[in-house]
Amino acid sequence: MILVTGGAGFIGGNFVLDWLKEPKAEGIVNLDKLTYAGNLATLDSVRNDPRHVFVQGDIGDHALVSRLLKEHQPRAIINFAAESHVDRSIHGPAEFVQTNIDGTFNLLECGRAYWNDLDEVKKAAFRFHHVSTDEVYGSLSASDPAFTETNPYEPNSPYSASKAASDHLVRAWFHTYGFPVLTSNCSNNYGPYHFPEKLIPLVILNALNGKPLPIYGDGQQVRDWLFVSDHCSAIREVLAKGKLGETYNIGGWNEKANIDVVKTICQILDGLRPRADGKSYAEQITFVKDRLGHDRRYAIDASKIARELDWKPKETFDSGIQKTVQWYLDNPVWVEGVVSGSYRDWLQKQYN
Ligand code: NAD
Ligand code: DAU
Q1: What is the CATH number of the domain that holds 29?
Q2: Which of 15, 53, 112, 340 is most buried as measured by Cβ atoms within 10 A of its Cβ?
């Protein structure tokens, strides 16, 4: 078995589905608290798969995590569970500290106690993979080189600060206790099952619903976009071949300004689902108040993982965004399930 945390969320959910597509794959214990971002509908297709054991619970629950490790004897823990949305961290940072820092601390401690008791062969094979973000490196100017694994940590938001803190704990557990950790720092993901508080799914759904497409500030902030299944394949490579204690940057080599991402989505929708009045969805673009402390540019140099683990992304932005828009058009039932009351409350709070 492997223990996956946060496997009902966007990336964790995609990881579970991709992993179980392989008929000979080991089973997964999936521990997820089912916050607003956790969605069991994402896991519908593996509902009856005996290799998938779903457990609702908190990564910060010491008794629960210890019991799951003892019962299922996983050979690895992959930690996706987190509060992940920067805007929410600005409105209410407490949960970010609790889950991202305290929760990771608890997983490390439970994992270390479990690992200490394993026999030598299992001990040598065990891995703790921590899934982190490029945001820990801070913000780049237009001319700065992309982030490498040796960039200093300069987190700017409550979210990125909490992720940076968790990365430091993971690093220290390796250095101090020899706990066998791996860390990956990834750029912006997009693709199926993405919760529509994030830019790409928000724009797709707002466009289709005739609502404004909100662009923060001048829309010239740059992100490096990675199709989610590419992130999942990179994590599998790091888990299988990564060097203990190392960090690996994962990115798509797809730097785009936000305004260009939104215009591309509008163009695709103009082709696939034209507006009744014949005008472009781009007419719905609206510039709104900027995010507090908004980081200007992120860019990932993913050459270490290419060189050492022979991984590179399969999707370009053009192919990935086309698939993503099509997925949202093809999956109205999942979308309807997600657009719940609590999500509508969030939109009201954030965009007034
Ligand atoms: P998400 O918000 O979609 O999902 C997070 C999942 O974690 C949810 O299912 C939620 O219910 C669960 N969760 C939250 N708190 C929990 C707790 N205390 N105990 C157990 N489960 C809990 O997030 P995501 O976008 O899938 O991101 C997954 C991971 O990848 C996060 O660690 C995030 O920091 C990192 N990451 C995300 C991106 C991105 O672009 N989305 C990029 C780089 C790194
Ligand atoms: O870089 C990796 C990070 O990417 C992950 O660690 C985070 O978990 C993930 O949420 C994501 O963070 P961002 O803040 O970059 O993603 P978001 O989709 O919220 O915003 C992308 C860009 O679009 C950002 O510059 C803010 C802008 N934006 C976002 C929203 C929701 C808008 O202009 N309008 C919006 O309505």
Answers
A1: 3.40.50.720
A2: 15
